[in-house]
């Protein structure tokens, strides 16, 4: 590993100033579970690592009537253990509980997972399905970007040189809303999704009709995909397997997977349908206040 300097600013302004160095010279460090590996293998060669874990704004975890505010440096273990997140943002908990093992979850952050911008990232489909927005700060001020627009390509995103993802903001879910994230991996030793699906579903007061839905696909395109047409096909329909099947071809239609060592294009297209139905079943069960037949990672 090449030599680099390490700094740990305690304010957002200090971090932005350090990151404003010429592109590539300074990199933000949250959990470091991806960044350190990239530096060790020569994929990245920063001169300075800017540790953002001591900045208060990036450690915020606050849930209330206006929604959820999640700092970009909050680790997955802390998120998954938060009672309000467990109650209202279950897809996010699903993702956080399967990102690596216990040690990784105690370091890795959802914000870092977003910024790594991997097409198969486990947290990004959940963030998209839950209607998350990315709050970005740089020398030119602060802006917001919808989570589905954050990633622009494999390992690429909308962050400009000197900008930092500060937090993720989620709207408060409506009554009778449930969400779920599910992925398929070929074996436990290969902890990268072949396909990942994040969904959020809202039911009417009878708990029979779907009134709102969002569906996000992972690992089937160069970026995670918001499957708008598939979600729209569910709205106004009864919460049944027959309805879920109507969304399958529309979700498959927007998937553009590749062949690689983890699966073929055809296999991934097939899995989109299988996982979508199972994810909707689990999300609807949660919307009804029931416990879905699901264990993290299965």
Overall radius of gyration: 19 Å
Helix content: 25-40%
Structural class: alpha+beta
Quaternary structure: single chain
The number of strands is 14
- Quick one: biggest sheet? 5 strands, antiparallel
What is the fold's blueprint, element by element?
Blueprint: E1 5-7, H1 12-19, E2 26-29, H2 35-40, E3 48-51, E4 61-64, E5 67-71, H3 76-81, H4 83-88, H5 90-96, H6 102-105, H7 110-116, H8 124-129, E6 133-138, E7 141-146, E8 151-153, E9 156-157, E10 164-170, E11 177-184, E12 195-203, E13 210-218, E14 225-226, H9 228-232, H10 241-254, H11 265-287
Parallel strand pairs: 1-3, 2-3
Antiparallel strand pairs: 4-5, 5-10, 6-7, 6-10, 8-9, 11-12, 12-13, 13-14
What does this structure look like?
This protein has 298 residues and is α+β, with helices and mostly antiparallel strands. The protein has a domain at 177-287: CO dehydrogenase flavoprotein, C-terminal domain (Enolase-like, domain 1). It has eleven helices and 14 strands. The strands form four sheets. It has a five-stranded antiparallel sheet with strand order 4-5-10-6-7. A four-stranded antiparallel sheet has the order 11-12-13-14. α10 (241-254) crosses α11 (265-287). The protein is globular.
